[in-house]
Amino acid sequence: MKWQEVQQIFPNQFVKFEVLHSEETDNQEIIDDVAVIGPISDEEATRELLNSRDKTLVYHTSKDQIVVKVRNNIGLRRSL
């Protein structure tokens, strides 16, 4: 389902979904196709997002598009 369709079905609320398709450009992942799991109340949104794994996210439908910053894992190496 496209994000614009999700915005029409669930206006101005948080939605939990699974990412089906995205494109990565300049350290940003732009998600354009999702499978909606369901609406989330404002009180539960933070907890649901923190418990999300893999390709599952929580996002507010007031946003025009889903943009996620991509961070590269930079580990510190230590020699003994």
List the helices and strands and how they pair.
Layout: H1 3-9, E1 14-25, E2 28-40, H2 42-50, E3 56-60, E4 66-69
Antiparallel strand pairs: 1-2, 1-3, 2-4
Description:
This protein is an alpha+beta fold and 80 residues long. Helices cover 20% and strands 42% of the residues. It has helices spanning 3-9, 42-50, and strands at residues 14-25, 28-40, 56-60, 66-69. A four-stranded antiparallel sheet has the order 3-1-2-4.
- What would you call the structural class? alpha+beta
The helix count comes to 2
Strand order of the largest sheet: 3-1-2-4
The gross shape turns out to be globular
Provide the residue-averaged pLDDT. Answer: 91
Gyration radius from CA atoms, angstroms: 15 Å
| Order of SSEs | HEEHEE
Percent range for helical residues? 10-25%
Cα(first) to Cα(last) distance is: 51 Å
Quantity of strands, as a count: 4
Q: Please outline the major beta sheet.
A: 4 strands, antiparallel
* Unreliable spans: none
Beta content = 35-45%
